[in-house]
């Protein structure tokens, strides 16, 4: 597992966010001020928040940078991912209203990217349990400047960082209705986790899966193309035929869709490996069109292919 190093000895990678200010406190406000400019350019669509009910006790909220899932059960209200920081007050108000809940009792960060951790700025200082993989917590404690971007993502304020971390898989007793969550190895980062609500039969995948666009293979923070296959293998084991699968972005999926994506990424990986061993460049990998036959409706795959190809080099030659 790669994971970020502590102190200044890290690699470098990415950023986004800002705005909100008032009730967040000095550290949180300063962090938002430094980061928001790139949030809107990267992940905040600026669209109104929309809600899709999954059941009487579960819903998906969209429009603030990715899918946010809210589940209300006997243990209270659980939220998975929170959108970008610039929309966090709006998101929190909408979640509480839609779920008819007085407060959020537990928040899950499926990985470190900004569209997943916006609610941390509001809920962390309030003492809410924030669950994440340990690698995600570590990434959120350090500057990241990914080489393909001009942004520097600065650490979250200490009080907004995850305060309950794990390494493999765990179960949270939530009012007699357990929540299961687990690590997906080095998938699209090295801190990806799934969250599964057995009572609702809802599986939240985070950024390892999308259903409307090519995913980001964030090799700078430990992700790689074959890791997407590994992550999907784990999700396939968790899901059943009736599971409602909530991807990081886009419409709901089923287990069969996970199997299809797993097979697709394995094919793309094999094509990229052939190019890798033929000493091709990233530009040549893009020109070879390894995503042919797959999801033209997802748009231009050039960035996905470039980062996926670079991820092979980064994974197989970690000291390069």
Properties at a glance:
320 residues, 32% helix, seven-stranded mixed beta sheet, alpha/beta, globular, disordered N terminus, five-stranded mixed beta sheet
Explained architecture:
With 320 residues, this protein is α/β, with parallel strands linked by helices. It contains 9 helices and 12 strands. Strand 4, helix 2 and strand 5 form a beta-alpha-beta unit.
Mean pLDDT, all residues: 87
What is the β-strand count? 12
Distance between the termini: 17 Å
Number of helices: 9
Structural class: alpha/beta
Q: Which radius of gyration do the C-alpha atoms yield?
A: 19 Å
Strand content: 15-25%
Order of secondary-structure elements: HEEEEHEHHEHEEEEEHEHHH
Short précis:
The protein contains 9 helices and 12 strands.
Topology of this protein?
Blueprint lengths: L25 H17 L7 E6 L2 E5 L5 E6 L2 E5 L7 H12 L6 E3 L5 H4 L2 H4 L5 E5 H6 L24 E3 L2 E4 L6 E5 L9 E5 L4 E5 L18 H14 L5 E4 L7 H23 L4 H6 L14 H15 L4
Parallel strand pairs: 4-5, 5-6, 6-7, 11-12
Antiparallel strand pairs: 1-2, 2-3, 3-4, 8-9, 9-10, 10-11
Helix pairs in contact: 6-7, 7-9
């Amino acid at each position: 597992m790669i994971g970020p190093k502590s102190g200044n000895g890290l690699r470098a990678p990415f950023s986004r966010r800002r705005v909100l200010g008032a009730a967040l406190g000095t550290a949180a406000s300063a962090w938002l001020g430094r980061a928001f400019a790139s949030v809107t350019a990267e992940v905040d669509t600026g669209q109104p928040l929309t809600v899709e009910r999954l059941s009487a006790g579960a819903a998906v909220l969209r429009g603030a940078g990715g899918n946010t899932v809210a589940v209300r059960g006997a243990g209270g209200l659980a939220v998975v991912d929170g959108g970008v920081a610039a929309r966090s007050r709006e998101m929190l108000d909408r979640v509480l209203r839609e779920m008819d809940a007085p407060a959020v009792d537990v928040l899950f960060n499926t990985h470190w990217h900004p569209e997943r951790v916006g609610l941390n700025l509001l809920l962390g200082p309030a003492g809410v349990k924030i669950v994440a993989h340990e690698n995600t917590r570590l990434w959120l404690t350090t500057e990241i400047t990914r080489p393909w971007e001009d942004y520097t993502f600065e650490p979250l304020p200490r009080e907004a960082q995850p305060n309950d971390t794990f390494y493999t898989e765990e179960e949270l007793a939530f009012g007699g209705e357990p929540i299961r969550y687990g690590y997906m190895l080095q998938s699209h980062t090295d801190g990806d986790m799934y969250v599964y609500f057995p009572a609702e039969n809802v599986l939240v995948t985070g950024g390892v899966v999308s259903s409307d666009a090519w995913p980001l293979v964030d090799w700078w923070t430990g992700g790689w193309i074959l890791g997407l296959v590994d992550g999907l293998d784990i999700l396939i084991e968790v899901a059943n035929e009736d599971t409602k699968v909530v991807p990081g972005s886009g419409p709901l999926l089923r287990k069969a869709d996970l199997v299809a994506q797993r097979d697709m990424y394995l094919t793309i990986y094999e094509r990229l490996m052939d190019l890798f061993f033929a000493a091709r460049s990233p530009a040549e990998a893009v020109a070879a069109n390894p995503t042919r036959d797959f999801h033209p409706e997802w748009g231009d795959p050039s960035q996905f292919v470039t980062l996926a190809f670079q991820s092979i080099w980064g994974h197989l030659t970690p000291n390069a």
